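To: structure desk
From: M.T.
Subject: fold request, one chain
Message: Could you run this one when you get a chance? Sequence is below, nothing fancy, just the single chain.
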Amino acid sequence: MSISDPSAAQTPLLDDTVDGCLDYKGRPVRRSSSGCWRSASFIIVVEIAERFAYYGISSNLITYLTGPLGESTATAAAQVNAWNGAASLLPLLGAFIADSFLGRYRTIILASLVYVLGIGLLALSATLSSISSSGGQNADDIALSSSLQFQVILFFSSLYLVAFAQGGHKPCVQAFGADQFDTQDAEECKAKSSFFNWWYFGMCAGTLTTLSILNYIQDNLSWVLGFAIPGIVMAVGLVVFLLGTMTYRYSVKGDEESPIVTVGRVFILAVRNRKTSYSAIAAEEEARGILATESSKQFKFLNKALLAPDGSKEQGEVCSIREVEEAKAVIRLAPIWATSLTYAIVFAQSSTFFTKQGATMDRSTATGFEIPAASLQSFISLSIVLFIPIYDRIFVPLTRALTGEPAGITLLQRIGSGMVISTISLVIAAVVEMRRLKIAEEHGLIDKPIVVVPMSIWWLVPQYALYGLADVFTMVGLQEFFYDQMPNELRSVGLALYLSIFGVGSFLSSFLISAIENLTSRDGRDSWFANNLNRAHLDYFYLLLAALSAVGLTLYVCCTKYYIYARWGRTF
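Reply: Done. C-alpha cells follow.
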C-alpha cells in the first residue's frame, strides 16, 4: 500500500490523536480508526474462547478426579480448589511480566500458545487413561501401575501448565481490552463502563456453551475429546485476536523503571524516614504547593517518602507526589481485597460440592435424557447472560437518574449488593440439601449412595441462578474497581489482584474443607464430606459459609466508609 505523504500518515490531526497510545507500527494512533468497540470485539472473542477452554476443564474436573483417577470426594474437592487457587494467583506473576517487560499484547500471545500446549498434553493424559482402562484381565499389574503413575504426573503437570498460561492471559486480556477506551474522553469513558458489563456477558456466553456441550461429551462420549475441543477453540480464539492487531491501541511504555519498583520505593523511603517529624513533612508539602485533600491526609506516613533519608532532594532520592499517591491507592485496595475473600470462598463451591450434590439426584428429563450434573453450572452463566443486558440498559439508566452516578451506583455499592445475594444463595442451598437428606432417609437410601435420590435436580436451579445474579454485581464490580482504582501503569496488576481474591479464596476453601474433614471424621464418624453424601452434611457446611459471608459483608461495609476513590486521568 503506497502512501503519497508519509509525514501526514505518521502525524495524525491533533484532535484525532489518542494521548499515550501508539498503533501497531509505533505511530501516534488515530481515534477515528482505532480502539473502542471495533478493537474490543476481537479481544472479547479471545476471552470467550479462553473461558470456554478453562471451564471445559474446571467445571467437570471433580468428576474426572473421582472417576478415572479414583480419588475421594474430599480429596478431589481440595485439589480442585488448590488448582483454581493457583490459576487465580498466577496472574500476579503474569501481570508483573506484562507491565514490566513484555507488554500486554505479547503476553497474551505467549500465554495463549502455552494454553494450547497445556490442553493438548491434558488430552494426551486422558488418552493414556483410555488405554489403561481397556487393558485385559491378563495385563501386567506392574506395567499398569507404572502407566497410571505416569498418567497422573502428566495430568497434573498439564493441569498446572494451563493454570500458568491462564496467569499470563487473564489479567492482560481484560486490561488490554479496557485500554481501547480513552478515559480522558467522556463518551469513551462511559463506553468503558459498559465494556466491563459486556465483557462479562461474553465470558459467560463462552462458559454457558462449554457447560452445555462439553460436560455431556466428557460424561457420555470421551474425556479425550472433551479435553481436545477446548484446545482447538483456544487456538481459533488466538487467530481471531491476531486479526485485530492493526486496530488496537498500544499503551506507550517509556524507559522509566517498573511501576511496581516505583511503588516499592515509596514504602522503603517512608520506612527509612520513619523518624522524620510530621512538621518537616508539612513544610515539604507547603514548599511543593501541595493542597490538603482527603487523599493527602490519609496514610500520611507515606508522605515521608517525599524527603530523602539524608535530607537531600537530589533527583532519584525522593519520590514525587504522584508516586506517593499511587502507593496510597494500592494500600486503599487492601481492606476491600481482604473483606472480599469470603465471597471467593462461596464462589468456589459451585464447581465442587454443588456438582457432587446434583450427581445424587434425579437428572432424567421427560425424553429420557440424563442431564450431566456439572451442566447445572450453566444456570450461573444463563442468569448472567439474561441479567447483564437488563442491568446495563435498564438498571443503570434508572439509578443514574436517581443518584447522578455515571454507572448508576458506585462500584463499592455494586460489589456489596452481590455479597448480600451470595449469602442468600447459601441459605437456600442449605435448605435444599436438608430436603435432599430427608427424602433419602424417608426412602431408606442412607446406605445406598449409588441409588438415585427421588428428588429432581431442578431443585438446585435457584442457588445456581442466585450465584449468577451475585456475579453480575460483585464479579463485574470487582473487575472494574481493581482496574479503575489502580494507576495506568499498574492496571494489569490491579486485575491480577482482583483474580488473586479468588485464588486465595480457593486455597482458604481447600483449607477449610480439609480442616472440617479432619474434625468431623474423628472417632469413626461420617464427616460432613463423606463419599456417601447421604450420610454427609453439606447443609451444615453451607450454613457455616453463610455465617462467614455475613461476617465478611459486615467488615466490608465498615471498610467502604473510609475508602477514597482515585480519579486517574479523568478530566470531567
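Reply (cont.): Residues 141-178 form the longest helix (38 residues). Let me know if you need anything else for the meeting.
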